[in-house]
Each structure stands twice: as C-alpha cells, then as structure tokens.
C-alpha cells in the first residue's frame, strides 16, 4: 500500500485497501499503510527525489484510500459529551492528517467540528464559542505556520476561554516540547494518539 502511494497509483492503493480491510482495522490501515506511504513521499520530496506534482498525486491517492475506509471506522458505543473543534492554521493548506484526526475522533464518539485548512484564528474562536467546545485541535505542517498554534492559544487567553478549552497540537513540525513551550495541553504524534490524549483530557 505504501509503495502504491509512493508511485501515485490510485488504483493499486484502492486494491491494497480492499485486500487489507478484511484482515486489519481501518485505523491500522490508515496509520501503517497509507500514512506510512505519505511519510515516505515526504522524505523523498525533502531529498529532492520527488517534485510537487508527484506529491499532489500521492496526496490524492492517499485521500482516496482514506475515503474508502471512512465507513469501516469502528464506531464507539458510548457517546462522549465532549465537543472538539479541529482545524489547520492560517497560511497552511495541508489537511490530510488533520482530516484523519477528525474522522478518528468522531468515530470514537466525540462531537467534532472540522473548520478545514488555512483557517484564521478568528474561525477557531468563533467555532469554539458557537459550539461550546471543550477542546481544540490545531494542526500545522510547516515550520513557517507553526506559530499559528501559539496565536490560537493567545486568542483563547484574550477571550477568557483558555480555562474551559483543552488544547491539542499536531503536525510534522510540532513536538512535545513545542506544545509545552506554547502552553498547549498536549501534543499528538498521530491520529491514534490524538484519540487517546483527547480521552485522557476530556473523559
Ligand atoms: Co507540502 N510540505 N507543501 N504539500 N507536504 C511538507 C509539509 C514539507 C515538510 C515537505 C518538505 O519540504 N520537506 C514542507 C514544509 C517545510 C516547512 O516546514 N517549512 C512542505 C511545503 C514547503 C509545501 C509548499 C509550500 C510547497 C510549495 O508550494 N512550494 C506547499 C504549501 C502551501 C501552503 O500551505 N501555503 C505544499 C503543498 C502540499 C500539497 C498541496 C502538494 C500536499 C498537501 C495536500 C493536502 O494536505 N490536502 C502536500 C503534502 C502531502 C506534503 C507532505 C509530503 C505530506 C503531508 C501529509 O499529508 N502527511 C509533507 C512532508 C511531511 O510531512 N514530512 C510536505 C501524511 C499525514 C497522514 O500526516 O503529519 O499530516 P500528518 O498528520 C498526522 C500527524 O501529524 C498528526 O496526526 C496525523 C495523522 O496521523 N496530526 C495531528 C496532524 N494534525 C493534527 C492535529 C491534531 O490536533 C492532532 C494530531
């Protein structure tokens, strides 16, 4: 599956998903098959072995695989009373990982409001107020947009909402120490960890 992502073969990705879905759980297929392939694409792109159009095609193949698995996500029997707003910061169009996190939080029983990508700080705050969210997930995939996570936290403080809303940060350049530095409540390395951290903090 990973190889099919790296070579941008959407048909092969879907065939591999079809084959895997009888034997493995959807989150496992996404994290260890599809996302693993996308990470390899990232490494090759970083080394100058792949160019942007290739990355875009690989991203499309990855998204097709994720869409195919949406109905297979294990539904949680218990409905969590917690509401989570999740989005990618302004100036950043990367949304594959953020969308996987939203889907997995949703199937774990959380009420999730995904505000999309390239989302201004004001969109985060408006959606948190509108939904009475208890948590916000903030994704940033570039070192140049990471600061956006801090800006959302600062805005929560200015609005007097910081005590009521837990903050989770994620995305390739984010780390545990970055999360601590900007005063987030947690960092999640992947979608499975995002679900576990949300449960720890909210349930
Ligand atoms: Co993009 N891109 N890209 N890109 N891109 C990165 C991010 C670079 C690291 C590649 C590189 O140069 N090494 C790099 C950023 C460098 C930096 O840090 N400064 C980069 C660049 C530079 C750019 C452009 C500027 C390129 C250009 O135009 N010259 C441009 C960005 C324009 C903009 O945003 N303003 C660009 C565009 C693209 C696309 C459109 C081709 C495509 C995105 C498609 C889309 O998302 N719809 C893309 C992609 C696919 C990547 C890489 C290859 C993969 C990202 C990805 O989807 N990974 C990425 C390389 C990399 O990340 N190493 C590269 C797979 C997912 C599953 O993992 O890490 O996103 P994830 O999410 C995980 C995890 O982080 C966590 O859980 C997820 C699921 O397990 N998580 C959260 C994520 N968000 C969370 C939120 C939470 O609350 C909790 C957990």
Automatic annotation (TrEMBL):
Pathway: One-carbon metabolism; methanogenesis from dimethylamine
Residue ranges of coiled coil: none
B12-binding N-terminal domain mapped to chain residues: 1-81
Sorted UniProt keywords: Cobalt, Metal-binding, Methanogenesis, Repeat
Domain B12-binding per the UniProt entry, residue ranges: 81-203
CDD domains: corrinoid_protein_B12-BD
GO molecular function terms noted in the UniProt entry: cobalamin binding; cobalt ion binding; methionine synthase activity
PANTHER family given in the database record: METHIONINE SYNTHASE (PTHR45833)
Alphabetized NCBIfam families for the sequence: dimeth_corrin_MtbC, pyl_corrinoid
Recorded family membership: Belongs to the methylamine corrinoid protein family.
Annotated protein name in UniProt: Dimethylamine corrinoid protein 3
The organism's taxonomic lineage, starting at the top: Archaea, Methanobacteriati, Methanobacteriota, Stenosarchaea group, Methanomicrobia
């Amino acid at each position: 599956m990973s190889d099919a992502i790296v070579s941008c073969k959407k048909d092969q990705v879907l065939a591999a998903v079809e084959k895997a879905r009888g034997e493995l759980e959807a989150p496992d297929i996404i994290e260890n098959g599809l996302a693993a392939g996308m990470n390899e694409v990232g490494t090759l792109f970083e080394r100058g072995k792949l160019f942007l159009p290739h990355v875009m095609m690989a991203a499309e193949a990855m998204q097709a695989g994720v869409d195919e698995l949406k109905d297979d996500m294990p539904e949680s029997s218990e409905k969590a009373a917690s509401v989570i707003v999740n989005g990618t910061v302004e100036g950043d169009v990367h949304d594959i990982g953020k969308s996987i996190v939203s889907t997995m939080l949703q199937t774990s029983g959380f009420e999730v409001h995904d505000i999309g990508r390239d989302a201004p700080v004001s969109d985060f705050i408006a959606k948190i107020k509108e939904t009475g969210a208890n948590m916000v997930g903030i994704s940033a995939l570039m070192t140049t947009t990471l600061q956006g996570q801090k800006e959302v936290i600062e805005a929560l403080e200015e609005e007097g909402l910081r005590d009521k809303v837990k903050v989770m940060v994620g995305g390739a350049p984010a780390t545990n120490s970055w999360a601590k530095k900007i005063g987030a409540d947690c960092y999640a390395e992947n979608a499975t960890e995002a679900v576990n951290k949300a449960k720890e903090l909210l349930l």
